[in-house]
Amino acid sequence: MDWSINDIARLAGTTSRTLRHYGAIGLLDPTRIGSNGYRYYDEGALVRLQRILLLRELGLGLPAIAEVLDGQRDDVRALVGHLHWLEAEKRRLDTQIASVKTTITKIQGGEGLMAEESLNGFDHTQYKEEVVARWGEQAYANSDAWWRSMSAEEKKSWSRSQLQLGTEWADAAARALPADSDDAQQLARRQFEWLAGIPGTPGYPNGPTREYFVGLGEMYVADERFAANYGGVEGATFVRDAMRVYADRHL
How far apart are CA 79 and CA 11, in angstroms? Predict the structure, then answer.
């Protein structure tokens, strides 16, 4: 079974012009072209388009999307990775929705507001206690000041890069890659570089210290809130092991 370009454009909320552009740059080729010149797409093309749209939601440009798709040939495993970050984003949005509903209900009912209820889901300082306990007040103060100094767009861009990296980690874990494989170690290097850009990270600006880098990997596994970013405990365990290998080799 296949669908015409107009059907796909309508269902995806895009335009036939956009789909033709995807074809022109090799991102989404039509399955066949009919005698009438119309482009048709089968189920495989639909899956690829779904992945393209998900990666667009992450804020990736078309060249970056092409690289991701070329590096993740297994559609099911890639979609599992996408699903993990979608579920994490859903949890965050559900929390914010519940918070806003509570605020509306209390205002309408003339009740007093509790700060914890009104701001639940919006607090970027939710890990303050862990940071202070492990790495001190100054580390938290520096990272907090850095976060507050960013514009809304900069925060959004940073969060997208975090989600993208988490998705790629989850995909690599689903493929059961060895922690010391080249692909896993490239991800570990990117994790190191991502952390190196955060003021307050022990070792900043030269990059995380070995103790911090290895300890953070352990925390990903021990705390389900962090593990959820990597597809659960199994994914977080893979991240931890790859980070330890990276630390043994480079830190």
Answer: 19
Q: Give the range of the structural domain holding residue 184, as residue numbers without chain letter.
A: 127-250
Per-residue pLDDT of 144-157, as tens digits, reads: 777 778 787 777 77
Give the three-class secondary structure for 28. Answer: coil
The verdict on 142 and 239 lying in the same domain is: yes
Residue 83 domain flag: no
Number of domains comprising the chain: 2
Dihedral angle computed from the Cα positions of residues 163, 243, 206 and 219, in that order, rounded to the nearest 10 degrees: 70
pTM of whole model > 0.85? no
Hey, what are 217's tokens? 């990997």
Residue 210 covered by a domain: yes
Question: For 128-144, what is each residue's pLDDT tens digit?
Answer: 565 555 556 776 677 77
- Burial string for 100-135 (b: 16+ CB within 10 Å, else e) reads eebbeeeeeeeeeeeeeeeebbeeeeebeeebeebb
Chain-centroid distance of CA 188 in Å reads 15
Interacting residues of 217 by C-beta distance below 8 A, sequence separation 6+: 239, 240, 241, 243, 244
Residue 239 pLDDT greater than 90, yes or no: yes
| Cα 80 to chain centroid, rounded | 12
> Residue 99 in contact with residue 120, Cβ under 8 Å?
yes
Q: What DSSP line would sit under 60-90, residue for residue?
A: --HHHHHHHHHH---HHHHHHHHHHHHHHHH
Coil vs helix vs strand at 33: strand
